[in-house]
Amino acid sequence: MNTTIWNRILLASMVMFFGGCSISERTVAAANSTPPQLFTLEPTPERNVLQKTASGYLATLLGDPANAEVTLVKIDPARVSQQTQDLAVSLPDGKTAQFHLRDFTTLKSGIDSWVGYKPSAWKATHAASASEIDYDPFYYLSMVREGDKLVGNLIVEGQRYRLDSIGSGRYVLIKVDESKLPPDGEPLVAPAGVARDDTKVKSPQSAHSVIRLMFLATNQRKAANPWWWLDLLLAMSDANQYMKNSDVQITYQWAGNFFGDYDETGRSSSQQLGDIGKAQPFASQVLSMREELRADMVLMYTTEPSVCGRAYISTGKDSPHSIVTCPRSLAHELGHNIGALHKQGETGNVPEYAYGYETPLYNLHTQMVASRDALPNFSNPRVTYLGMPLGDSKFNDVARRFNERRETVENFYPPPNPLTVLVQLFSDYNQRGDMCTLKIEPGVDQPSCNKVKSIRVYDFAPGMKLCFRSEEYRRVCYAGSYAGDFAVPNLKAVSVLPSGLVREGGVGDDAFYGDVKYVEYAMDSLVTIKLYSLADFKGETCEFRLATGTVGSLSEWPQCAALSGGKSRSAKVFSFSSPYNKLCFFNADHRQSLCFNGNYQGNFSIRNWDVGTDLPSGLVRTHRGGGYMNGSVHRISYGNDTEGWPPAP
Ligand SMILES: [Zn+2]
After folding, report:
1. Distance from the CA of 369 to the center of ligand 1, in angstroms?
2. The whole model's pTM is what?
3. Interior CA angle at 328 toward 326 and 331, to 5°?
4. pLDDT value, residue 20
5. Ligand 1: centre distance to CA 335 (Å)
6. Ligand 1 centroid, distance to 322 Cα (angstroms)
7. The pLDDT of residue 204
């Protein structure tokens, strides 16, 4: 979005503004409290000096003519948190802006996104209808963080900036000159021909659709940008905002990455797009990973310089493929796949209303017209900006087109079973030697390779137990509250595991002699309890596992020393199994109790011992003896749900 447009709109809205409205008290109050600064500017050498000394990713960034100004900044990546409600920015030219949290999303264990907006002053000062957007489209802040890596998009007064990591906990703020970026490429018809479009008059059956994306990168992109997937995740977060802004019931979800080899040398953008489905053996590897991840769409990040992106139009299951060079084109290219075109008059496999919207008034346009300088919207005549509908229902209703096709696309693959784990088994220690892969939904399976010394596990679910066992039932298991990926360098030894994951089983030949015959993945037979010193799962924590028929005091578990003496205030319970079991928490003299039983199996959370809401259906909570449980949980019992249980101390 460019600043000239912003200035024209600012002028127009100021004229309207002074025409009879007064500053609301809310605006004044907001201006008085100053939120923390997202970054501070660091002394930055002149660009030509920087260019001489820069190496690695910073050198790549400096080599891109669209990166008009590069300023070193200091950022605390921990700002990307649900706790951060407001952030301020101060730019090198002295301009400032503030953003309020709109969405915080954990994209995958360890990768979070934060999106902020500036409320629309126009809406606040006009008798605007409900259809009027409630954000200022000339201001925006979105960030994605993985560890100390952070990438961000920032728009202030219509001027676009990027935040990027350059390694070793260092960051840059880049002023982007979008005029130096290539245009979006024309969409193509997929080689398999036009998919039969049976969705033109279909109304969606479900309230919302989740469309899963798999990302890949060419060898050249991987070399240029070591954390390339963060760029795409940021663009995906932005695309999800455009959907929301446009009343489209689609959320894109990251299915995962494909890391295979693809050399883009000498391949045009159209050829690269075709290669995703045709170049062998690459295309077969991509397809098999896509099936494994159940990814509805596939997008490749390239360095091809002639276009910002290219995609097939209105595709079926065979070819929902696209490529991008500029990540900001992701929403636009995926929009072609789903079935929208640029401007009316263009012909393609789309109904006449599936075009983007542009208006000479303020020179505004929506995402499908062109991704450069676009409003954060798809055309939708039922949504207004400054009172103007963002489309004509006859020609510009991309929102309708997306809503009509979303179920077709989300059903290219069924959703994955949330409890599926992927296990890689290696014939040597430290994830070396021959490897085979096993994908297990809860149950038992036999690996195709059975001389197993080390493993790597993806998407372990908390409350589950993953066991490796020999024919004679010697076994090693992993369980607990941990969610995500982990690796074990030697299955027969005790190794350092991520917090919340516990190992169970023998060591050395007591684990097993040679072969691993079976891999089991099932709900843990023990219950895991994680306690927190503060309400809402904050503060200090400790956790322990209990077998049925156990009664114990917190002081007996050394890992819980900090929380004994009744100091806990909230808890998470993993792998609770009823209807046979009852889980109870007691005060010091056993007179007050809080028990959970009923018809429920699985995990649940107690965000405050004294609040009985937010429990899953079927679970029954019983508080006896009066008084507060907060700060007085000393003993815990887990056992058969009978009259005599638990025995009095
Ligand atoms: Zn396009």
Report:
1. 7
2. 0.71
3. 120
4. 37
5. 8
6. 11
7. 65
